[in-house]
Write a structure and sequence with these properties.
This protein is of the alpha/beta class. The protein is built from 14 helices and 24 strands. The strands form six sheets. The protein has a four-stranded mixed beta sheet with strand order 22-23-1-24. A hairpin with a 2-residue loop joins strand 8 and strand 9. Helix 1 runs parallel beside helix 2, helix 1 runs parallel beside helix 7 and helix 4 packs parallel to helix 6. The longest helix is centred in the first third of the chain and has 13 residues. The protein is globular and about 60 Å long. The structure holds ligand EPZ. The site of ligand EPZ has 24 residues, from helix 1, helix 5, helix 6 and helix 12.
Length: 417
């Protein structure tokens, strides 16, 4: 199990080229199976989650080739319409392949994804939408069996703007003749990226980014070249690192229009930010001050994925910050680790109260999930002394070479296998 060793107290100073978005590339790789040819995906981040998605693609019969951050996916000979238990268990978000496999083969057999570290992650909204499209679904022996020989367009209203359910519905409906409407759709930028990729392939989808998406089914989709959008959560994580270390960072190849809620929160904390469309510069606050209440919401609200890194930063803000985690039921596992480092945080259910500014000291801490692990990195930069973060595999799921990125900005950080 590798770990990160971080010596805190240094100011972060440097430039970062923001990696491609993990949450955009995963559904786009699922969509890639819908063409009969090759797809070339640029700006693809080298992450554990992408490697696990490539295993699913290969299991379906795709040929996949890396070249730096470019991934070539050849779907011309795929013949398998199942995802086995071991692959689904290693990454539950592989459920995003369900809609694409159904569109490709008219049937699918996938293992129930189950939960993960941050919650039980139900898929009832996914299955309800697929059933409205005429997909016959039976669940038994821990598997989901789908038959789609009588599909039809539908007007689907999602009870919650679920990102995954929106994506699975787009993927299942894009080759169903007629017009399918998704109401109360998720509005995340990653949904827009999926729409743009599918339309480049020949699909006819409109409205992504709004709460209503219309999908006109087409008969064929083609292999294309495509560049993934920047990762807004990784970008904001590095802004939090710079702010926590009282440093300055220049983010390049980012998309500031996807980061409104996060940039506003950093400004409210007193950080000095300068933004252009593809560039964000953060300079240190004179004094970091607490933001009264931060509530996680669906996009364009404050993202749940940045809650823990910003909570780590909030420990360095003068005053009391109240965080309310409205999206996932178990997304406070980083708190006991932050308290080990000297943070003053109390929780009650989905509410966490952070009293700042607290003096953090380096300690041995454990990453327990992806974004909570990133929060420990933010805290380690502000802490006095050395912090050892175990279970770096969680952080590697979403952050490409985090130690190289931070070391290039003057941080004393090493990975120890
Ligand atoms: C996506 O997960 C992201 N993952 C998550 O990022 C992100 O936190 C989440 O969207 C919210 O923005 C990927 O894109 C791979 P949801 P997803 O369906 O699609 C409930 C990260 O750190 N729900 O919008 O699973 C669910 O329990 C990860 O990068 C149902 O009840 O999120 C949750 O409470 C973590 N039934 C809420 O909706 C369903 O059928 C939001 O889930 C589906 C979801």
């Amino acid at each position: 199990m590798s770990k990160l060793i971080i010596d805190g107290g240094r100011k972060m100073e440097g430039e970062i080229d923001v990696q491609g978005s993990k949450n955009a590339v995963l559904p786009i790789l699922a969509a890639a199976i819908l063409s009969d040819g090759k797809n070339i995906i640029y700006n693809c981040p080298r992450l554990r989650d992408v490697e696990m998605t490539i295993e699913v693609l290969k299991n379906l019969g795709c040929r996949v080739k890396w070249e730096d951050n470019c991934l070539e996916v050849d779907s011309s000979d795929i013949s398998v319409y199942t995802i086995p238990d071991e692959l689904m268990r290693q990454m539950r978000s592989s459920i995003i392949f369900l809609g694409a496999i159904i569109s490709k083969f008219g049937k699918a057999e996938v293992s129930m994804p189950g939960g993960c570290e941050i919650g039980n992650r139900p898929i009832d909204l996914h299955l309800k939408a697929l059933r409205q499209l005429g997909v016959e679904i039976t669940e038994s022996h821990g598997f989901i069996y789908c038959k789609a020989d009588k599909t039809e367009p539908a007007n689907i209203h999602l009870d919650f703007p679920s990102v995954g359910a929106t994506e699975n519905t787009m993927l299942a409906a894009c080759m169903i003749e007629g017009i399918t409407i998704i109401e109360n759709a998720a509005r995340e930028p990653e949904i827009v990226d999926l729409q743009n990729f599918l339309n480049r392939m020949g699909a006819k989808i409109r409205g992504a980014g709004s709460d209503t998406i219309s999908i006109e089914g087409v008969h064929k989709l083609y292999g294309v070249e495509y560049t993934i959008i920047p990762d807004r959560i990784v970008a904001a994580t590095y802004l939090a690192c710079a702010a926590a270390s009282d440093g300055t960072v220049i983010l390049k190849n980012t998309d500031s229009t996807h980061m409104g809620a996060m940039i506003n929160t950093l400004k409210d904390m007193g950080c000095r930010l300068y933004t252009e469309k593809t560039k964000v510069i953060l300079q240190p606050a004179k004094i970091l001050k607490s933001v009264d209440t931060i509530k996680t919401m669906p996009y364009p609200g404050f993202p749940t994925d940045i809650q823990s890194p910003f909570m780590a930063l909030a420990t360095q803000c003068r005053g009391t910050s109240v965080f309310v985690e409205n999206i996932f039921e178990n997304r406070f596992q980083h708190i006991e680790e932050l308290v080990r480092m000297g943070a003053d945080i109390k929780t009650d259910g989905r509410v966490a109260v952070v009293i700042g500014k607290s003096k953090l000291t380096g300690a041995k801490v454990m990453a327990k999930e992806l974004r909570g692990g990133a929060a420990l990195v933010v805290a380690a930069l502000a802490a006095e002394g050395t912090t050892e973060i175990e279970n770096v595999k969680y952080i590697d799921r979403g952050y490409q070479s985090i130690e190289k990125t931070l070391a290039s900005c003057g941080i004393d950080i090493k990975r120890k296998e």
